[in-house]
Predict the 3D structure of the following.
Amino acid sequence: MELDWLLAPPLPETMPRQRVIYHRLREAILSGRLVPGTRLPASRDLAASLKIARNTVLFAYEQLVAEGCLLADRQGTRVAPLPVRPVVRPGRGEAPVAPLQLSARAAAALQPEPAREAAALPFAPGVPDYGAFPFRSWRACLERAWRDAGWRQLGYAAHGGDPGLREAVAGHLTTVRGLPVEAAQIVITSGTQSALDLCARLLGDHGDTAWAENPGYFAARVAFGLAGLRVHDVPVDTEGMSPSEDDWRAHPPRLIMITPSHQYPTGRVMSLPRRLALIERARESGAWIIEDDYDSEFRRAGPAPPALFGLRPDAPVIYVGTFSKTLYPGLRLGYLVLPQAIAADFARAAAQATRAGQGIEQRALADFIRRGYYTAHLRRMRTRYAARQAALRSALRQAFGPCVELSGGEAGLHLVIWLPQGISDTEVAARAAALGLGVRALGSYTRAPMTCNGLVLGYGNLEEGMISEGVRRLALAVHSRDNQAA
Amino acid sequence: MELDWLLAPPLPETMPRQRVIYHRLREAILSGRLVPGTRLPASRDLAASLKIARNTVLFAYEQLVAEGCLLADRQGTRVAPLPVRPVVRPGRGEAPVAPLQLSARAAAALQPEPAREAAALPFAPGVPDYGAFPFRSWRACLERAWRDAGWRQLGYAAHGGDPGLREAVAGHLTTVRGLPVEAAQIVITSGTQSALDLCARLLGDHGDTAWAENPGYFAARVAFGLAGLRVHDVPVDTEGMSPSEDDWRAHPPRLIMITPSHQYPTGRVMSLPRRLALIERARESGAWIIEDDYDSEFRRAGPAPPALFGLRPDAPVIYVGTFSKTLYPGLRLGYLVLPQAIAADFARAAAQATRAGQGIEQRALADFIRRGYYTAHLRRMRTRYAARQAALRSALRQAFGPCVELSGGEAGLHLVIWLPQGISDTEVAARAAALGLGVRALGSYTRAPMTCNGLVLGYGNLEEGMISEGVRRLALAVHSRDNQAA
């Protein structure tokens, strides 16, 4: 039997001889090139014919016997009877039986999105100031958490998360956000996407309708789509999400996803009458309101509007918070606040659904909050972001005139500049990208029949020294269209 | 107007006066106790009548005006017209309109499960040796990762995860597991539950059938149930999952979830003919095989059986690995290995579905693997766990006789001891729990019509000194039934 091909070039560079022989023999057996029953030469003979050590052959034979590819008996070694079929490659002979493909719903998660590199560019929205992150105090908290780590921190997280962190978050929300909540109502999540995902699956069933703001936060639609919910877009006006009677009747919601403190992306604040009406209507129709309060910590104009959660007793509201904007996105810690009635069940189901962990980081964060580092950091960042926004506003008014319409300044890390009809925001955004800017078109958050024409300008990670240069390039991107038209 | 109740006891201890007035006024307005249009006393008069500083009243009024609860005009301050209805408490008057409740599918995640504390008890399955974790070298890697952290590590993870970690995992799998894979085929996950969850949603659609091993890993059923898949149980025999012709015809699978290297919980190894047949059949029927290789790193009896992934070219197999057993569960890092054909799309969809992060930890882990710490730790743990298993086996044989049937010793962190008919494993497990043991009944992993009667004994976190004492208590739990019967 001719087995020269066992060591025929090209040989893989990094693989030892004996593994090459093992791999090639196995491939030959599994592909049917060596048919079941075929007798292989004695190890001594094969070693001699290939001019290699006998042990090299023995290793391969033994491994393949152990795996069940070869059978060894008194007569020697032969190929085991295996249910193999020659591999059919597309284009040669019959086509493969079923092509490898993703599920139909995976399409919801394959929408185009900005390249990751864009997050580092001026005006990229949703990015906090990485440089201002309090590395020293945070790492000191991590150090302490590691020093005391036991099985509770190294194992899976307790239901609802680390008890100390649940306490600390409840305390923070009560003091700073005016939300009188208890630790038992808090479920620690690994960020907002995971929170929305839990809400979609633990509160919604397949075919249920989820209302999304239009324009709105794209990633919420991904979570709902992957959970088999039907997403219904509800327009946002100057007072926030504005459902019509037809929305309520023809598309009764199970979930209503809103960003009432600082609508994403328009930055508008939902009015109190709108909040109260939404709660009443949701309560009547058995819907859950998901209140995403993603960046309300950076509020500057007057007192924060009261959260829907806690506005009315027993309201069907779930409050979503995150440390992505206040600390850093990669931390992957956030939280849900739940009404008492469902808190224990939700925490238990969430624990089984996600098998969360990060016990060390959760403990470090509890420590960070308890020691006052978190509030101090928020205070410092509030001032810093306010200064940045003021500088950006004035640069924009200088470049585009005093009447340019800006919105979204009450809180958060971004401003919206509205463009006059006739200047396409997607075209401006594309030109801005070519000039090295991370600005996004309002239109990319908007679905028909709504139309919005403007630009979302993140300033969280924008050094003040870069603002005037950024606005100069932005003006170029806006005006070069006039040049083209000319 | 009588407003004495604004400061009537009991007053919340930790709340400043002005916030009490604000809260009580707001509550009175939102509950309809103060009806729209009601004029409030001038701040000066109210302050005098409550015997407090005028500023305290002014603060509350201003906050409530800002929120839209009050209107201020030349005539003074009055309650705004708001769409409120008095709150109806259950038991008094009409019932609330729709009770707050979870989705129907949430029931899949509300199965009873062992208390978290059980994870710290002797024989708790699935728990690695926390004490042996290489804290020093791991923390050194974390230190280095923090020192070099930039926006890439602090922001959301790149598609598929940190490029360095994908490289390191691919290298490790090629060298140690004999899986020739490339970094582009790796998607870093936040552990096995998240991996199964991604597979369920990105590979399966609502109503599709997912095959689960019976007995099998409970948490996989949670992931499938929450994704709207129909779970079909397929029996496991001594060669692994053993589907019948009827299973294929009446319950054609979209997903086939298996643990072929060390079936969970029986510990059985899927034979090579079974593996090859499963791949062929899955290919024909357009099914995906999910190969969970959760603890194959701790293999001791002979060479590891070849993974289904890579056994045949273009096989519809997704390989799932985790660092939960090899490092610690709370780390929440694992990985999927994907066929080339879908790797890029899957990585992109997974990034949108999860918005992963943990960039610092991912980098630290890549460093940990590259420096050889990971392989060294595996080697050390393999020896340690092997010694523990040997000690456990001999203690079991001593206590239960030489003929007691044990399985699952080829790899992993647990053994199965099979019980004779007539001794109920659930009853033994309950008695063992009362004696402070974390052992689990095989029956709790099994669904009718299959029956399995035995105990799953984890020894990962079991000090050798505790083994004889643990087995002594276990024998008590088994035998006390004889006493009861007598």
